[in-house]
Amino acid sequence: MTWKEFVYQQIIEYCNRIGSRTFSLRDFYTDKKDQFREFRPNNFHILEKVRQQLQFLRNDGLISFLDNSGHYTLRGIELLEVEKQEIKSIDISKETPEKKEYIIETYVRNVNWAKKAKEVLGDLCLFKNCNNTFIRDDGTRYIEVHHIIPLCKGGEDGLWNLSVLCAHHHKMAHFADIKTRISIEKFLLKEVKLRL
Ligand SMILES: [Zn+2]
Ligand SMILES: [Zn+2]
To answer: Minimum-distance ligand to the CA of 149?
Structure first.
């Protein structure tokens, strides 16, 4: 097995264990140091080697940069174990790519980013003049977090690609005709940029 294959395999194992596609190089390396040492006992520059492999994996589109402070997003695999678990009641094998993305996004998200999105963007739909909302049992307002550019189309799991929408406008962002979808995408990107 090559270094690149080994590092990618370790990333998949790590992300599955922590239940998130987003990871930091520091935490990942701290967690995996011993495995890397075992893999190549004679290598004394393991961190540099791992960094280099992450660069190769980025070139291959298997991971991508989330920010400039050493956070990455795992790509290249359709679903993490934890995601499979959470959607096992829904048969997504029969769904179209757009529907699938919507289902995955609605039921499983990086919870930390979703929380952060609500903190920064609020709990009201970002769509023009939308007042469509309701209060839940626990007194909080119902809102859905949406990836403006879908992860499957290369969008990031970072804050600048997240928006908050009511259930209706969220469905529109995914299933309306292409012209409407593009105009929603443009509007949301602008709106989120203003608020960050
Ligand atoms: Zn969405
Ligand atoms: Zn709305």
So the answer is: 1
